[in-house]
Design brief:
The structure is a single chain. This protein has 147 residues and is mainly alpha-helical. It has two domains: 1-65, no CATH class; 73-145, no CATH class. 34% of the residues lie in helices and 7% in strands. The protein has three helices and two strands, in the order αββαα. Strands 1-2 form a two-stranded parallel sheet. It starts with a helix and ends with a helix. The relative contact order is 0.10.
Length: 147
């Protein structure tokens, strides 16, 4: 059922127009969406030939709202403790942006041990090896320059 709803969501998103602000092509007001408010606005009254406005019909189905393409719900993880209550059948890990190298290495190690999937790291074992190399490379280059 989820797969059908994901396919429906993809179809809805493909047909959804890019909502542009009224008169964005005439004035330098930017393209960020704002609801039209004028009394004589053709866009506000939804006349034929005018631009489309956001409406509930463009929303995705409730059951798949917020899910990734694989049908998994993303969970942002910053610490080891947050890894404990992850359900791998329904959730996928997203490593937090502010997580530093040391904690990221520890998180990747535990992800590999528990065989969990990570959304923003393609290959956790390869990423782990690259992260371990970087400090050594930095140390070697500083010795060569004499700093």
């Amino acid at each position: 059922m989820i797969q059908k709803l994901l396919a429906l969501r993809q179809h809805i998103k493909a047909r959804k127009p890019h909502f542009v602000r009224e008169d964005a092509d005439k004035k330098s007001i930017g393209t960020m969406w704002r609801k039209p408010t004028g009394r004589h606005s053709k866009m506000k009254h939804q006349f034929k030939g005018s631009r489309k406005m956001p409406s509930p019909g463009y929303r995705s189905p409730v059951l798949v709202r917020g899910l990734l393409r694989q049908g998994l719900r993303p969970v942002v993880v910053h610490t080891q403790g947050e890894l404990g209550n992850i359900n791998p059948a329904q959730e996928i890990i997203v490593l937090g942006k502010s997580v530093g190298r040391r904690k990221r290495i520890a998180l990747l190690r535990s992800v590999i041990e528990k065989k969990l999937s990570v959304a923003n790291v393609k290959n956790p074992t390869e990423a782990l090896l690259q992260m371990k190399k970087k400090p050594e490379e930095k140390h070697e280059s500083s010795e060569k320059t004499g700093k």
